[in-house]
Predict the 3D structure of the following.
Amino acid sequence: MRKIALVAAAVAALGVAACSEGTQDAAETTTESAVADTEANLDAAGNTVEAGAVEAGNAIEGAATDTAVAADNAAARAEADLQNETVTEAQAD
């Protein structure tokens, strides 16, 4: 009877060890998957931030260009009025 109990305990211990190893493998796979997902999300977030910064930079550059053109046109109109000439002539000066 004692031998049967020892064999049953050994089989149960092997079953628990196998289950534990399977659980460890599953946990490792889950961790690797979570790390991969985190990396992908960080890359996507970085790309989004970078794209937003580029877009904002382009908008600022465009606004600055528009402002410079508007200021140049206003100065040319003012000069044309003062010197009794056309805007084109004022811009050429």
Remarks:
- The CA atoms of residues 37 and 43 lie 10 Å apart.
- Residues 2-92 form one domain.
- The chain has one domain: 2-92.
